[in-house]
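TA notes. Do not distribute before section.
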Amino acid sequence: MNILLKLIWLNCLLINLGGCALLASTAGGSAATIQIAQTIDIIKTAGDIGSASVTGKTLTDHALSELSGKNCKTLNIVEDKKLCEEAEAKIQSVKVRQVVMPDVSTPKKIKAFQKSKNLEQTGKIGPKTRLALWRIKHGIDD
């Protein structure tokens, strides 16, 4: 596609996409309907500007990307690219904390653990000892 045709196509696209108010007025909508449509247009435009400034994609681009599972950007068409490209794999790094559980295999070891946690030293795993072990397991206490 030559550049002139791309610009004409982009101009038509922008006119049609910003057309809630235009559509409402040409469809013979009431003044209230037109005002609501204009308000929605203003909100959408503000959202598009904010989104594009942070992510480089408009709200429409994000919606298309979510629906298709691909990386979509409407301005790709101007650059002779596909509207939607295969999405890059998202890799999340998660820090995993290694938890070392205390040895409570014998009554003597249970008493030592209970003493370290200022619990009654019964040598048996009761509710308070079980809670202390749970807190260690879930990284709340050391």
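Switch to the second chain here.
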Amino acid sequence: MISAMGAQMRGAPGPARGISIDSRTLEAGDAFFAITGETSDGHDHVEKALAAGAALAVVARDKAGRFAADAPLLIVEDVLAALNDLARAARARSSARIIAVTGSVGKTTTKEALRCALEAEGETHASAASYNNHWGVPLSLARLPRSARFAVFEIGMNHPGEITPLVQLVRPHVALITTVEAAHMEHFSGIEAIADAKAEIFDGLEAGGTAVLNADNPQFARLHAAAQAKGVARIVTFGAAEGTDVHLKNLTLQPGCSVAVADVLGTPLTFKAAMPGRHIVENLLGVLAAVELVGADLALAAIALGRMRPPAGRGVPVVLALGSGEATLIDESYNANPASMRAALSVLGQMETGPRGRRIAVLGDMLELGPDSASLHAALAEGILAHRIDLVFCSGPLMHALWEALPPERRGGYADDAHHLEPMVASAIRAGDTLMVKGSNGSRMGVLVKTLSDRFRDSATAFPKG
């Protein structure tokens, strides 16, 4: 660390067994990086981190005087820049085959699917949670063990130019773009500009690297042209479109799972996803392409994917215990845009209900959609009708556009925020219902999920049979 970051040592730092930027989750033996963020300064938490057992703290030179002379410190000019330097050193020493994932929808689920598929073959390192921004990517890369055989990194953005420096840190052998959709639109002139920003992932591909692209996405031709223009050595396509390298030949959607038949770069493969939805299977086609490209075993990967469970807030089913029986809540509260909302409504439409049960959608605002926000919210009414959603609850000022577009018989309740919506939803739930909760993070739908789960607490998480 001293060599990579050009750091000055003070006190007696111990061997660092991990890296942390959050004193609340730090484990004994971690190196604590005192990053200064938009709302907090990590230097305010250095003493707490050291008291919790941190092996050392990495601090800025102009703030080092705040700490005891014998405190175990590594002193640098800029803490975030030092974390980036450590990430570069971790990448330089690694012999792992590395995959980078981006896309408007499905990044984290795809990253977790890659982790699951590759762990069947050998030691795999992957980004924690959704650590995909200017501090999450270098933190994840700095944690890369020398012994890892595979590594998977999620890379996100909400402005042009954000992906390039991150992917140049990661230097992947395979770059996978799940899809390009209307997300973070307020920062872009249109969907084509989003595609161009996602194409920045090609800027850091290793020589001889491969781009993996969704041929079913309307922006495919633009992404393909960008990959060619940037000198990508190989482009592999996936989807249901004819001529794709990873071709979906048949798909059976069931309430609790999906079963697909595909040709993966010349290898016939039948696989099961333990999550329902066509969008899930499409992303798994890209996963299987990447698995093959890094030299892992397809059969082992397919078996592992059949056991995968969704990450938190991305389709996790929870049992709600009612006095007269049970209802099922599908937690889709981790973020939303029009594409992911349509996919979630489609899945809800496939879910089974109990006797006299209803399909209920509880929806919060989709944020950062720009001037077309009202029409994009109102347009969700089409999917609600098409997928036989019986009742809809809406939260937030943007969702009022959908509320007004709904037929009166589909209206369950409306509130300005999730807190005030919760009692309406709680009083409406009855045995046999299946409800899905979704919204952008800023709409606080995750808090509503927790409140409902606590109110109707049951010991088990429910995974539908299939």
